[in-house]
Amino acid sequence: MQLHIHYDKQKVIQALRYHFISRIEIKILLIVVNVFAILSAGLFAFQLVRATPFLISSFLWFILMLTFWFWMPRAVYNRSETFHDDIHLRFREEDILLETSRGHTNWGYKKFMYFMESPFFFHLYITDKSFFLIPKDACEPPHDTFEVRNWLKQKMTKK
User: Fold this and answer.
1) Rounded Cα–Cα distance for residues 136 and 3 (Å)
2) Which fold has domain 2-6+84-155?
């Protein structure tokens, strides 16, 4: 099976958001900040604390959301040359052949720890923080998405 990949900026940014928000350490951080914000808002409403903790928690929440929702995905997108290339991807029995205008590489399936599916992409994880995105848009007929999903399930584990 062969796919021609061209990345759409908005969809890639959404996939990067999905990646960042799905990280366990970021989930815990967001939960702690939200609990602190709710607790400080409640204590402030009952006049048990001054406005400072409430304002600090609101500011932290706002900065976290800006960081994980806007700044980090855009920074990763702009820094990565992969998202600006046209890529030809071929699934073969023993590996995945990736070809760009700069060259080609073979990735054996054992190189990937697992894969995850988001609304617009398949995320193939090399490490917990390093991954390759395969857009579902590259699968022309809708049944190709099903074939890619099944192929990945056969060759690697799903998270």
Assistant:
1) 10
2) PH-domain like (2.30.29)
